[in-house]
Amino acid sequence: MSTHITATGRKERRPDGTYIALTRTFRAPIEDVWAAITEPDRLARWIGRWSGDPATGKIDVEMLYEGDDVEPEEYAIDACDAPRRLELTSRGTYGEDTPATWHLKLDLAETDGVTTLTFAQSMDDPAMAENVGPGWEYYLDRLVAAETGGDPAAIDFGGYYPALAGYYRTL
């Protein structure tokens, strides 16, 4: 894909820290968008798959589009208010060996048949933004493609990174 991609993320200061927030809209009921971000088969179309029992408060997420050697990461389910809010936390590594905690917040709202998804990730280490921001732009655009009849595989990460890194570095 060789189209020009525009960064949409913004920095938000919230009571529990600083976040990068991105928004996408869908001409679909909120329940349908909720399914796209929580049902394993629908999630696998654009980002990855999860396994485990959410009733335990934890799931394992396997990113499907980041190469062959990606291990599943454990995510704690911090809040789930279907179909409006999902909060997850992962404690793993960033890059080769840098410890990182990722707080993800997904908020949905529907007005007149249009659902808005606001996706936010905590950004405790601002240096991570130049990599993380373009990554979430890529994945959220894959979500839009999957939910609007497009082909997520036609979306090329090379159009996002390094092109959007400078924007996120300055946030």
From TrEMBL:
InterPro entries: ASHA1/2-like_C, START-like_dom_sf. Pfam families: AHSA1. SUPFAM superfamilies: Bet v1-like (SSF55961). It comes from the Bacteria. Residues 27-145 form the Activator of Hsp90 ATPase homologue 1/2-like C-terminal domain. Belongs to the AHA1 family. This is Uncharacterized protein YndB with AHSA1/START domain. It comes from Promicromonospora iranensis.
